[in-house]
Each structure stands twice: as C-alpha cells, then as structure tokens.
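Researcher: Here's a chain I'd like modeled. Treat it as a single chain, no partners, no ligands.
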Amino acid sequence: MQGTAELKNAKLPVIKTELPGPNARNVVAHDDKYISPSYTRPYPLVISRGKGAMIEDVDGNIFLDFNAGVAVCSTGHSHPYVVDAIKKQVDEFLHICSADFYYSNLPKLAEKLSQLTPGEHNKKVHFGNSGAEAVESAIKLAMYSTRRQKLIAFFGSFHGRTLGALSLTASKARQREGYGRQALDVTHIPYANCYRCPYNLTPESCGALESKGPHCARVIEEQLFRTTVPAEECAAIVVEPIQGEGGYVVPPASFLHTLKEIARRHGILIIADEVQSGFGRTGKMYASEHFDFVPDIITSAKGIASGLPLSATIAGEDLMTWKPGAHASTFGGNPVAIAASLATIELLENGLIENAAKMGEYLLEGLKALMDKHPIIGDVRGKGLMIGIELVKDRVTKEPLHDAMIQTEIECFKRGLITLGCGASTVRLSPPLVIDKNHCDFAIKTIDEALAVVSRGVVADTGC
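Model: Modeled as a single isolated chain. Structure tokens:
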C-alpha cells in the first residue's frame, strides 16, 4: 500500500534501485522460462501499477510513461472515470456475443463513432478486439463490396500480424520471415516520407505543391495501373494518415488528397488505418482531420477503450451492406470494453484532445530546440502527442542510427522515462493525453541527457 500511496502522489520519476531491481530480475527470469520468445522487450521494465502518466515497477521505482502501452492508454493508467464505468458494467454482466444478441451500449457507441469519424455521411460499425482485427474486417469489407482482390499499401506500414494484415504490413522483414508467401495480393510502394524521399525529390519538385499532387501518389496511376496492378482489379488503397511503426512520418496533405482522387477515378476504396493515430492522439479525434481527408473505411483500436481490447471498423452505410454471417466475432464489442470506450470518449471530448494538441505543440517546440545541441537528431516531427525524433549519423547523408535509437531508449529508461523506438532509427513519444508541462519539461531534459551520452558513443565509434 505504501507503493500505491507514493505512486498516487508522484509528479515525476523516482528511481530507487539499480535497473532492473531484484524483484524485476526475478520476473524477467520467470518470463524467459515460460513466455514466447517472439515478444520484443527493449529493456527490463516490470510494471506493478500505474496511475495517470506515472507507472511503478515491482521494486518501487516510479517512471514517467511516454509510451502509454504503445499509444493505448489514451486517458492515462486507470483513469477513475473509466475504471468506474468498467466496474458498473462488470456488476451487470461481463459478456454477450454481439454477433448473436443485442444490448443497448453497442449501438450507442456505434452511433458516437459514426458521428466522430470524418465525413457527414451515415455510417455503420463492425466491432473487433484489436487493430489487426479491424484491418482484417476492413479488407474483407473492401473485397466484399467491390468484388476485387488486389490491394495497394506502403513500405514502412504496419497493419497487424495476422496473415491477412501481415500481407499489408511492410515495416520489418522479421515480421514476415518464416511465413512463406503472403495471403493477399498486395503491391507496396513508397510512403510520402519527404525527409527520406525515395525518388530524391523535394516537395517543390515532386508536385506536392501543385494540383497534380506528389509523385509518390501519382506513381499508382502512372506506373502500377499500366504495368502490374490492373485498376479494375484493385479493391482498396490502405494507408496510415500518419505512419506509425514506419517512423511517425507525417505526409503532406496533397499525398492523401491525390490518393483519394485516383481511387475515385477507378472505383477503388480508401482504407485509413487510424489504429495508432486515432482517438485524440494527434490533437484531433482522427489524424485524417488534419488533412481534410475523408476515407471510405476507417479502422480504430489502441486508444479507443483506454487499455481494454476493442477495435472498430467504420464505413458508410451504403458500403457496409454485407449479409448476416459475412463477418463476425465472438468477443468483438465486449460489454466491458464498450463501457470503457464510452467513458474514454467523454474524457477526450471534455478536454483531453485539446490537451493533446497543446502539450504536443509545447513538446515539439522543446524537442526541436535540442537539434541545435545534438547533430545526431536528423528530424523532429509529429502531430499532437504522436512525435518522432529521428537519429542520423549525418544530417546530409541521413544515414540511420539504429543502435543510437536503442541506446537512447535505454538511457531514458535509466532516468525514469519510458519511450519506444519505431522505424529505422526514430524514438517515438506517445504519452497518455493527460500529461502536463512538467511532464514535458522532464521528458525534454531527459532526452537531452540521454542524447548527450549516446552522442559521445557515436563520436567515438566514428573516430570523429
């Protein structure tokens, strides 16, 4: 109970033991014996409890969480309003299969999601349990409604690890290794990463600032449809409005607009994967809103229920016309997760989305200022509280520094800040939307200290 009281009153991290501490080492050893080795753990954080933006490990060390369970704990850890909603639902009933029977909160949440997603048209919702399930649902719906089989996705994308979603995922080779040919017919092309343009163009030279749109989008119509992907066989273009695992990459709005125009010309659907970028993380309910982008299908998960497993696939009612039995899930739309989601939305609309926008702007400004001190920072980018710090060997060559990213995560961990990497060499910040300026100041200071240590190692390695 002492640890609980200390955590409740904690404003900033307190590190009491070496990391990992003795209790944490025991848990890690137990885990090594029984847990699948396919899990990836960048450093030995062993959580005991969490409150707001703070978490406590099994040795009583307190950390500031700037990862939030990979952008999941949108309202912070164990927000009392969400916990209360969960407890009330638990007292009523734990489960009913929404594919077979009815209960009132299911259409209540579906109506709310229909109102919150971009576009004024009427929509319908299919519920699942995870981001991968939402993507699977979106793919099936696109194929069902268009009667087409081919899909277009982007290098650097992450859409899940189930076999269908994995066909779309193009983030890391090890995620595909050992599984043979992919389940779906997917063609990948480069994403609109202006910092690392694969065509060696600039926004001024690629068309991004012109009505024709950027080359990386036009390549679909100008090359793919003429060579390998017949337009009349393409069901959907699947895109992250802000790319997540690929490095927290923010594209120009013209990229998404051009994709939409191309899709419309050829009867192709646009699926926006907002699993990581949705639900207030970017300072708007959905990242698509930053670009005035209205997809045909949107996938939601992660922050949708403040940590409980829930996902949603949202599409226009004229599109979601599949027949009973075409797609369903035993646990999708679990009553406890639905209750948590309804409470989460209330909190987001009553200040947390606005806070994400304000704290994100403050944090982004502070992190960009670090570029003057640390040449290994190649780029700082993001929207709201979805921010990436890309580390490079040289700002001219932009050679990624993957090892430096890993070491920066570890140095932050030692100082009480929880971060996680993404892309080739990007440190991602995806904190709960409840953080304040003191949290931001600590994060900036800690990253500054971590980069100072890491930079010395980089200089030593290169002999500069």
